Request: fold
Amino acid sequence: MPINSCIIEPSETIFPSKAINHLLEITDIIAKFLQSNYDYAVITNYPFINDIRSFNWLGWRTQVFYTYHIDLPKTDFSSLPKKRRYLIRGAEKSGIVIEISHDFSIAHEMLSKTFLKKGVRLTAMPAEKRKTQR
Reply:
């Protein structure tokens, strides 16, 4: 299964309709390319790319999952279940720290462990690991 990614430069327009059209043009090209070259595709988008109409218009079966970015110090957890609040407080007390990192190998290691627990092989691998395994 080929794995790849693309970087989409957001539209610089101040008009929301033009920005939406910009993303639709890009997703339309991607959807058409994938449809003509593959029978099956799993696509993970950045949170700001949430319009999947291009895929629906081509008859793709879609299943959407969302990622949310939250500012934890400013978040009101009162509506969460008691157990979830307990787990969050426990993580904070035990010194769990959330930080921004551009080192994908850290995330890859955590994903690998999660997939291994589920009995699934993770096919994607950071470039630096691929180089060392050649």
